[in-house]
């Protein structure tokens, strides 16, 4: 049983967010040491910016790192994600695609499903929405299940290969 999850993008947000937040706080302290009203207003704006950056790039990633649900599970029975459980008999093939969109790379695993396949109930909670600033919502259509794997693509390929279901790369 292998849970596939990604933490790399969260660490990146922390590496950027902590220095920016600390810089805004230090700048606020510097402005507050000057007692002119203009500098006090600047300090308040800087403190507001520190609060926004701290919330987006420091607090959210720390919460996600502590309580992150996995993207999906791979085990001897099949796969399980936020859209349900699918047995290996439900899956025709697995393709991995890489698209270059909006200046970034988007990696997706597409599980082609037999017609009339219905997902079974899941045993736990999985990512279904945002992880930090990354969208990680599995898409289930009539004929396939798509899971954006992003920075955890290597771990996902390894997990699938450990159960003899390595994806085709295109």
Short description:
The protein is α+β, with helices and mostly antiparallel strands. The protein has 3 helices and 11 strands.
Overview of this protein structure:
This protein folds into 2 domains: 2-67; 72-169, no CATH class. It has 3 helices and 11 strands. It has helices at residues 8-33, 37-67, 153-161; strands at 2-4, 72-75, 78-81, 84-87, 91-101, 104-113, 129-131, 134-136, 139-140, 144-148, 168-169. The chain has a 5-stranded mixed sheet, with no helix packed on it. Strands 1-2-3-4 form a 4-stranded antiparallel sheet, with helices on one face. A hairpin with a 3-residue loop joins β9 and β10. The two termini are 26 Å apart.
Strand order of the largest sheet: 9-10-6-5-11
Give start-end ranges of low-pLDDT stretches: none
User: What would you call the structural class?
Assistant: alpha+beta
Strand content is: 25-35%
| H/E topology pattern | EHHEEEEEEEEEHE
**Morphology:** elongated
- Multimerization state: single chain
Q: State the total count of DSSP E strands.
A: 11
- Summed up, the helix count is 3
Radius of gyration over alpha carbons?
Answer: 21 Å
> How many domain regions?
2
Helicity, as a percent range: 25-40%
* Cα separation of the termini: 26 Å
Biggest sheet overview: 5 strands, mixed
- Averaged pLDDT: 80
């Amino acid at each position: 049983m292998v849970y596939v999850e990604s933490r790399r993008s969260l660490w990146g947000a922390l590496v950027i967010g902590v220095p920016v937040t600390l810089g805004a706080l230090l700048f606020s302290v510097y402005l507050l040491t000057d007692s002119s009203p203009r500098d006090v207003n600047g300090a308040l704006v800087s403190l507001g910016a520190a609060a926004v950056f701290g919330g987006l790039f420091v607090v959210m990633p720390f919460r996600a790192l502590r309580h992150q649900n996995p993207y999906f599970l791979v085990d001897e029975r099949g796969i399980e994600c936020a859209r349900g459980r699918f047995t290996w008999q439900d899956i025709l093939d697995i393709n991995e695609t890489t698209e270059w969109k909006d200046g970034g790379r988007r990696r997706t695993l597409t599980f082609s499903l037999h017609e009339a396949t219905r997902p079974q109930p899941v045993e736990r909670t999985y990512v279904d929405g945002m992880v930090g600033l990354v969208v990680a919502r599995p898409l289930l259509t009539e004929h396939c299940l798509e899971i954006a794997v992003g920075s955890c693509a290597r771990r996902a390929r390894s997990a699938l290969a450990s159960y003899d279901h390595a994806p085709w790369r295109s």
